[in-house]
Structure to design on (132 residues):
């Protein structure tokens, strides 16, 4: 059951990731800061995620009113944790082992952060928002 649920979550995640990361990189290369680009891209992806996860992944019958605030609280916590961890860890690793130029750390941090975010978000949504 958990694997099937996580598979559905990943399918929805692929769609909202395409939307969110496309926007993140577009904004970042248009001159937005790392934090603004990831925040706005993640926000748009989160809106896609809410609708699809509520109806498709978790088949929640709870009202939008009841689930929207916890959903975005989980999103916010996951966002701060994931993207702070990714940028911090990559900067530490690259200061010891310079695999890529430091001016490209944020490019990779966006991708690493997306992976961390996905795992944290699944746990949060399942445990606190769309409980069965």
């Amino acid at each position: 059951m958990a694997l099937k649920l996580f598979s559905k979550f990943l399918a929805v995640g692929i769609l909202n990731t395409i939307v969110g990361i496309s926007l993140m990189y577009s904004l970042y290369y248009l001159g937005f800061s790392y934090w603004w680009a990831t925040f706005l891209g993640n926000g748009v992806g989160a809106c896609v995620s809410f609708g699809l996860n509520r109806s498709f992944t978790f088949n929640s019958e709870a009202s939008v009113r009841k689930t929207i605030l916890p959903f975005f609280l989980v999103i916010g916590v996951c966002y701060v944790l994931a993207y702070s961890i990714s940028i911090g860890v990559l900067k530490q690793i690259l200061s010891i082992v310079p695999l890529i130029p430091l001016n490209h750390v944020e490019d990779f941090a966006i991708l690493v952060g997306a992976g961390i975010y996905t795992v944290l978000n699944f746990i949060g949504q399942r445990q606190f928002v769309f409980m069965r």
Remarks:
- The longest helix spans residues 64-96.
- The CA atoms of residues 69 and 129 lie 9 Å apart.
- Residues 2-129 form one domain.
- The two ends are 12 Å apart (CA to CA).
